[in-house]
Each structure stands twice: as structure tokens, then as C-alpha cells.
# Entry
Amino acid sequence: MAGVATSSRQRSKIAPYLMVLPALAYLGIFFVVPFFSLARTSLSETGGSIYLPTLTFAWDFGNYTDAFSQYREQILRSFGYAFAATVLCVVLAFPLAYVIAFKAGRFKNLILGLVILPFFVTFLIRTIAWKTILADDGWVVGALGTIGLLPSEGRLLSTSWAVIGGLTYNWIIFMILPLYVSLEKIDPRLLEASKDLYSSAPRSFRRVILPLAMPGVLAGSMLVFIPAVGDFINADYLGGTQTTMIGNVIQKQFLVVKDYPAAAALSLVLMGTILVGVLLYARALGTEDLV
Amino acid sequence: MSREVPSPIDPQLMARLTASRTSRRRFIGGSAAAAAALTLGSSFLTACGSDSGSSNSTTDDGSPASGTLRISNWPLYMADGFIAAFQTATGITVDYKEDFNDNEQWFAKVKEPLARKQDIGADLAVPTTFMAVRLHQLGWLNDISDAGVPNKKNIRPDLIENSIDPGHKFSAPYMSGLVGIAYNRAATGRDITTIDDMWDPAFKGQVSLFSDAQDGLGMIMLSQGNTPENPTSQGVQQAVDLVREQNDKGQIRRFTGNDYADDLAAGNIAVAQAYSGDVVQLQADNPDLQFVVPESGATTFVDTMVIPYTTQNQKAAEAWINYVYDRANYAKLVAYTQFVPVLSGMTEELKKIDPAAAANPLINPPQEILDKSKGWAALTDEQTQEFNTAYAAVTGG
# Structure
């Protein structure tokens, strides 16, 4: 009898580990192994034919310094664009999430559905559609020109504005949803309490709602910023020759120039910089609780 | 990974979605996402694959071609009813896939299996000449026998006498075209005749160049007195420097794949480096569009049928090439694709089914245009690498 009890206790101890096993295996196969392969490539030297290159591991840290010095402009630009898009996402998404969480009433699910609806159309098609909307001869450019709000280039496509706009548009859903979740969790009685204590509406927003929404802002910012930094589709379709991002460089290094070590080094530089940035950001916002 | 695109699409589907017009060189950029996924994934996936065995036989036992022929071609590069007619005529079943959307992307996908001599799911593919040469140099192509393709004699003499594959032993041209300049006459307000015209300050931010090194730099080298038929490092660098200078001035709006056509049609671009066949098709919608071979000359490209050494039906592939090389059959293809024929004496056959195409100088170019058109030499690995790297430094990475 004692033996049975022990083994069942043992089983219950093992059970949680068994349950995370698929996820661990997935991470191992699709993240850890490729990550080390990428890291190894980034420190290798190329040899042999360029079409069937042989990579020799050589601790070649020169790949990193070369990549960074040669493409500093694109790296900085990517972070600038992603930052601008993240700020825009917060500014645009916050009021919307607020309305959905507090004011929408029975229309809540309908509005949430409408928010998600455009994302049934694939990313690429939506981005290409913006080309039509923002075309030089289109009504948007015409209208902006009439009221004198056109950028100095006299167009929207192939400018930083179009790329940042595209990034904002494509990733904003990842800001709206976490913001909505964190706002929705706020207990309405807290707002009533602040009202009872004669707090003005702006003040209770600042002192009650905003702090409680911070985990949503943090989660949303990371979900928007991280993919936006590495994005290359928006710069490809909506940008021009002066708006290339680091994603475009990596893509070209992998597929056209076929300098795999340089491409791998750039990918890792990007990954490392994002990681540091995110850690600093999370610390600055003072929260470890995501959503 | 952060730069992964959230919704990678089947490249074949993507090609169909984006290639809205009958043009086959479009939307390289659109497929880039899929290409990236393929490149990163291919080596891993193929490493798991088992050797399917190479059952190709190049020996002729005298029996007629039969069975199934798997063709991998560019999107919208095939006339309606052509495959059905071939199947009826030969009894061969064709499994036709429009999954060839970009040379480098395709190469990235097939290089691992081909290096292991594993089946790539195609018995015949249609890469551009430079890619065919690369495959040949790697030893991955079967010869195309003269006995299997008696209609080889119909190929244009100037193509037969090429320096890359004299007599067309491993490559069978499919379509040819010119890389020239297209412009929107309504937007430019004048005719464009030279490379210098592209740098007119009036067109600032309205010019597009090809991001592909050969297609982008060839005509610029010609305007500088250099030739892609015998390219030198200095000549290429000189062209790259000019492009950089113009780019720094803000003259160039985009470096494009084949997606320039949309910008040109939409009026976002006034002057573009362009492929002749595309422009013929765009002119149908917008008569203001013009295609010109610059006074200093243009480059040509040839897409060519090849039989990978992993083919499972060599005979059927040769039967297909022979069928394509019949002038009456080939006229149907040209009438559809609007590119320049690779067979000689096509004027008569074209007149029968499409008099407009026969009279179109972009489909049936006069001799003086052909004389001004140069093809790139077969580049060595080092040259390709060097030129691609030099140009990529300007085109943004």
C-alpha cells in the first residue's frame, strides 16, 4: 500500500514537468537549436563556392563590427521608426481600448470584433492596399496638398511617414488587445471610490486608471515594438530608397548577397539590442506583471 | 524571431494573388517573405528528408515519351489551352505548377535537394539564363538531346550562336525580352531617349531602377561606354557610383523587383527601368506608357527551359520542348506572354493569330533595336558576388 502511495505522489510531482514537455521540446527544436545555429553562422567564415558556401567556424567577431559599422544608419532608423510607431499605437489605441472597456456596454463584443476584422485579410494584402490609398494621384495626397500638410517630398509613399504609418497600422491590434484586457480588469468600484473622494475625472484617470493600465501599455509596447523593429514589408512596399530598415538589409544579405555570417550577425545584433531595450523599458515602467 | 512575418503565405498562392496582370516578372518583393522562410527552413527540412532516389534515365530505349511531366514555370507564363493541346497531342500528362517566382528564391529552395541529387518535384523548370548557367556549372542539369528536340533548328540564329551555351546543349530558351526604360508620357511631358534623361531634376523622386544588379546596371554601363558582354570591376563600379550619386540626390524613388509596373500605372513613378513584355501589357490600359531602348543600348534577358539531373521523365521533358519549338504552337505562347520570341521566322505565324503582336516592335523588334541590345556574359561566382555586393551597398543593404 505504501508503495502505491509513493508512486502516485511521485507521479503527481512529475506531472507538471510532463505537461510543459511539449512546449519545452517546441522551444528547443524551433528556438534554441536555430539560435545556436545562427550564432555559429555569425562567427563563421565563408569559403567554397558562393552558391554552395561552406561555413567554417572561426570566432570571427569581425562580422559583428562590420555589420554594425556598415549598417548603423539602418539599425538606428529601424529603432526610430519602431519607437514612433509604438508611441502612435499607444496614443491611438488607448482611447479606443478605454471606450471598449468602459463605455461600449452591449456593443463591447461587436467593437472588439470590428477591431479584429481587418486582420482576417493577410498582412501583405493590407500593406499593398495602402499603396493604392496613398498613391501620388490619390485623394489622400490631394487633400493633404490642398490644406498644405504634405511632407517636403510632396508625396506620402516612399517617405518615412508612410513606413511609420504602415507599421502603426499593421501592429496596432497588438496594442489594443492587451490595453483592453488590463483596462477591463479595473474594478469600477475603484473609480467610484475616487469619485467619492472628490477626485476630478482627469485626476482619477491619472491616479487610478493609468497606473492600473501600465501592464497593458508595457505588454502592448513590446508586442508592437519588437516585430516593428525587424519588419521589412512596410519599408519594402511603402518606403523608398531612403527608408530601408534593418530587416531589409538582413533579407538582402541572406537572399541576394548571400553573406550568411553578416546576415546572422545583424540578426543577433538586432535581437540583442531589442532585449536590452526591453529590459530597460520594463524596469523604467516598474512592472514585471505583463497584462 | 522578431523579423518573421506573421502570416507567411504559400508562394504559389502569393504569386497568383499579386500578379494581377498577365506578367510573370512581378512582385519579387511580395515573395520575399516566403523566400526568407524558405531559405531559413529549407536546409533543416531537407536534412530530414530521405533520398527519394534518382530514377532519371537519359538512355533512349526507342519508346515514345509517356507518363507524367512535372513543369515548374513563372506565374502567368502559359497560354490558355496550350497544356491541354500538348496532352492530347502526346498522351503525356502534365502537372503544371506556377511556382517559379524569382530565380534566387527558387535556387534557395532547390539547392539542398539538388546537391544531394534528390527530386525537386519538377522535371523541367524555366530559370533565367544566368541561373541555368549556375545550375550547369554545378553539374545539376541533363543535356537536352538534339534527337529528342528536332525543332531546336527553329531557334533564332543569334541565340544559337550565344557564347554561354553554344548549340543549346543544356538550356532551351523559352522567352526573351528587353530591359529598357518605360515612361509615362503624360507625367514626363516629353520623350525619354537616353539614360541622362532619367536624371532630369523634373523627375526627382519619380524614377525607379531595378534592384537586380544585372538588370539595373546593364544599361547604365552601356551609357558609360562599358559593356555587360565583357564586364569589368571598374565598369560595374562606375555604374554603381552613378546610381549612388543620383540616389543621394533623391532622384530615385525605389529600387524595384517586378513591382515597378504598379507604381508606373498608378502614376507614382514617371520613368522606370522596365521589361518589354510588361509594358506591352500595361499599354493596353494606359496608352500614355512608352517603352524605349536608350540610345546607348539596353540589355536582353532570356528565360530558358532546363531539365534538372533529378528529372523523372527526360523524354517527356524533351517532347515538351519540341512541342513548344513548333512555330505554330509557339505563336500562341507569344501572343499570350507578349515577350520577344526565341524562334526565328515568327512574324508569319504571329500574323495568323495576333496581327497586333506581329506588328509590335516590342514583341517583334526591328534589327536596329536587336543590334543595340546586349546580353550579360556568363559571370563567374566571384563576379556575381562582387557585382551583387557592390550594387547592394547602394540599393539599401
Notes: Chain A has 13 helices and two strands. The mean pLDDT of chain A is 88. The radius of gyration of chain A is 24 Å. Chain A touches chain B through 53 residues (CB under 8 Å).
